Amino acid sequence: MMEVNQVSGAIVNAAMKVHSALGPGLLESTYEACLLHELSQLGLKVATQVSLPVAYDGIKIDVGYRVDLLVEDAVIVELKAVETLLPIHQAQLLSYLKLSGKRVGLLINFNVLHLKNGIKRMVNNL
Question: pTM for this structure?
Answer without folding.
Answer: 0.94
